[in-house]
Predict the 3D structure of the following.
Amino acid sequence: MLHEFTINIPYKEIDQYTDTLNATGIYNLYYESPIEIIKVQNGYGYEEKEDQQVDLKIYASDLEVKNLPE
């Protein structure tokens, strides 16, 4: 059975969390980068907002990872 977990973490720490989860065998992760659309000289661009929180979605199966929380 596939489980979905969501944790809210600081965006600037996302690499640390994903590396730790990858090391334990969990590779199915998803998050949206917090960005803001801005006007620039040639049109539009974006800025990443590293000081914001993001929801990290974790997808794992009972077969992939033992002892998943309920």
About this structure: The mean pLDDT is 89. Strands lie at 2-10, 28-30, 35-40, 43-48, 53-61. The longest strand covers residues 2-10. Residues 21 and 44 are 35 Å apart (CA to CA).
